[in-house]
Amino acid sequence: MTDELGADPARSGELEPIVPGVTAQTSASLARILDAASFGLEVVAPDGSIVYANPASASGQRGTAGPGAEQTVRSRRLQANVAGETYELSLSFDEAEQIGRERDLIQRAYFDELTELPNRSLFQQSVNALAADGSTEFAVAFIDLDGFKHVNDYYGHAVGDGLLNAFARRLSATMRPSDLLARLAGDEFAMLVSPAGDADALARDLDWMAERIREPFVVDGHEIFISASIGVSVFPRDGDSCERLLSNADRAMYWGKGSTKGFVRFCDASIEHAASQRSRLEQRLRLAIRDKRVCCAFQPKVDLRTSRVAGLEVLMRWIDEDGIIQPPGDFLALAVELGLMDDLTHFILNETIASIDRINEAFGRDCSISVNIAARQAGNAEFMRSIVDALAATGFANRFMLELTEEAFLSKSEFQSRILPMVREVGARISIDDFGVGYSSLAALADITADEVKIDRSFVTDVHRRPRSQSVLKAIEALGHSLGMSIVVEGVETFEELAFLQAATRIHYGQGFYFSKPVLLEELTSVVLAQANARTPAAGRETAATRGAQLRPRAS
């Protein structure tokens, strides 16, 4: 016989008299909750009868276990005094299930879900325990995969996750049982090397690991080459806690990565000095932006055969605390890293637009204006919309050339499908900057929609003496022209380089110190106008200036 809730009255209907004042509805609801509980609950009255037993209790499971079934149930008995009578309560739970839950909690708390390596928390506890013991000299290696973002962008995040797993397995296979590898976050890993051994042996072991990492990975049918930059700190010389050791190893990795990727760098005093210098540079950068101590320099793009200035590239310069104009150097890279480049780019663009009358006067209204856009900015639709709107508002957006590195085109971002049409809509043009280094290949040109290719200066330097560079240069030239792209060579510095380009190629335009270094607009226009006036009769000077001046090459 069952009640209206479908429960056995011997189990649930008898709860009401146990707790005076509890209504039948409340009693039934409580019984339903307890029936669904994963733990067992059995209530026995003073006379030995079972007042309540939920399905997970021993009584509720009676007869369900087969012969020979392993019993993993753990029980605990309690007494409760109700209305002067003592009731026996028996609580039980499946020990195997409890152990499984505990293991799951430990796994979630101390291990990385993707690679199943120890996480930052377990790594910190392990390092701090060794440091507290103090009897063993050990090392902490901070490991960062070089260019991992480009793997995610190009192949997709599923392949990126597969690469992280493959990396973790390969590195784990190179370790001793006493070492510990952990994934800290993203593509950042840390290794506890204990004991560290002598410095030379440690350096050899880590260099060997770095070499193993450079061997190709095969993930989902893709052969992927990648390297890792490794920074190393040693206990107790470089720190007495995990936080301090990781921080110093991270700094060593960062400064090693800045010079050469894929190598091992140990922490030393010079890194502390470099970190201090970087912190000072960051403060100078923020103050320069706040105080608007930034200005534009212009470098002409010159017709190689007529010396006519066909365009200007706008470059950023900053004015230091002593009022001296400085090239950006590390200043610019740090601005990109700190997310300050958007404000700087808008500032440079606004200053250029404000100078358009002087540009027209010196170089004519057909002189193009090139503005550099960082790859990270090019993939940001919101930022690019603000740039496009600013260009459209000028009324002469067709004068502007946005210079982007190949990274912006080759990553699987929205640039080609969403952002490039915005640029085209207002009439602005696109240039591939520094082509020939980094991620480029000749085949990649076929997939890039651009108006101009700027060949990196590494192919132009001493080109008259380097047959292999000549061949690459001509191949880029031929493919670029066949795809309807204008070709510009960067870094022309000598007469011999210019002479080769004029005689052996059909490339029209060049930039470089041979013509002019980047200078302030006032300096550039005064030189150009003086040269134009020197060659032009008095009656025709105004016309010559407005048609576009010629730039006389500097003496070599």
Describe the structure.
The chain is an alpha/beta fold and 556 residues long. 44% of the residues lie in helices and 21% in strands. It contains 21 helices and 20 strands. The strands form 4 sheets. Strands 12-13-15-16-17-18-19-20 form an 8-stranded mixed barrel. Strand 19, helix 19 and strand 20 form a beta-alpha-beta unit. Helix 12 packs parallel to helix 15. The N terminus is likely disordered.
Give keywords.
556 residues, eight-stranded mixed beta barrel, elongated, five-stranded mixed beta sheet, 21% strand, disordered N terminus, alpha/beta, 21 helices, single chain
Map the helices and strands.
Blueprint: H1 9-13, H2 15-18, H3 24-35, E1 40-44, E2 50-53, E3 73-82, E4 85-94, H4 95-110, H5 120-133, E5 139-145, H6 148-155, H7 157-173, E6 180-185, E7 188-193, H8 199-214, E8 217-219, E9 222-224, E10 228-234, H9 242-259, E11 264-266, H10 269-290, E12 294-303, E13 309-319, E14 325-326, H11 330-337, H12 341-354, H13 356-363, E15 368-372, H14 375-378, H15 381-394, E16 400-405, H16 406-410, H17 415-426, E17 429-435, E18 452-455, H18 467-482, E19 486-489, H19 495-504, E20 509-510, H20 521-535, H21 541-547
Parallel strand pairs: 10-11, 13-15, 15-16, 16-17, 17-18, 18-19, 19-20
Antiparallel strand pairs: 1-2, 1-4, 3-4, 5-7, 5-10, 6-7, 8-9, 12-13, 12-20, 13-14
